[in-house]
Specification:
single chain; 163 residues; four-stranded antiparallel β-sheet; 5 helices; globular
Length: 163
């Protein structure tokens, strides 16, 4: 999944905090947590870089990992029963993978980087650990993801972004 990049990529959870704070769209993933809680959350997230065209999620896969975007853009597309392709673009300060994260069903769409991007991931096992050790933070993450799903489902063009 992680491809080598030409320049070393540095990660600090504050970059993710800044991306979320800078996203003024309705597609923002915005948990209401303190700076100290962000640092705690950062220790449960795995940062990595993806290159242009690299696939993060494949439609039909059973993986439940959540991805939060620090920089770059991800395209979300799927082929429906009539062979049509639907598309959404998800940018910094937002998340993908929340649909399967909650539903435990197969991925509803394919997600790939449209430009080199910095991503933070949280597999279900790490979320379970967070829930046991930091329940207030885990609850706020779940509420923020639920709000994101609700906004996407209410916006017909953004529905495809629920992956």
């Amino acid at each position: 999944m992680n491809a080598p990049l030409r320049n070393p990529v540095k990660f600090d959870v504050q970059g993710l905090v800044h991306a979320i704070a800078s996203n003024d769209s309705s597609d923002v993933f915005a948990p209401h947590i303190t700076p100290a809680q962000w640092e705690t959350l950062g220790s449960y997230l795995q940062p990595f870089a993806v290159t242009d065209g690299q696939v993060l999620i494949e439609q039909g896969a059973t993986d439940r990992t959540l991805y939060i975007i620090e920089t770059g853009n991800l395209t979300v597309h799927y082929e429906d029963h009539k062979g049509r392709v639907r598309l959404a673009v998800v940018g910094p300060g937002s998340a993908v993978g929340e649909g399967a994260f909650f539903s435990r069903q197969a991925r509803s769409a394919t997600v790939q980087a449209s430009v080199p991007s910095k991503i933070w991931s949280m597999p279900p096992l790490r979320f379970a650990e967070l829930s046991k050790r930091q329940p207030e933070v885990a609850l706020e993450i779940a509420m923020a993801l639920g709000a994101l799903v609700s906004r996407r489902l209410a916006n017909r063009p953004r529905r495809v972004a629920v992956t």
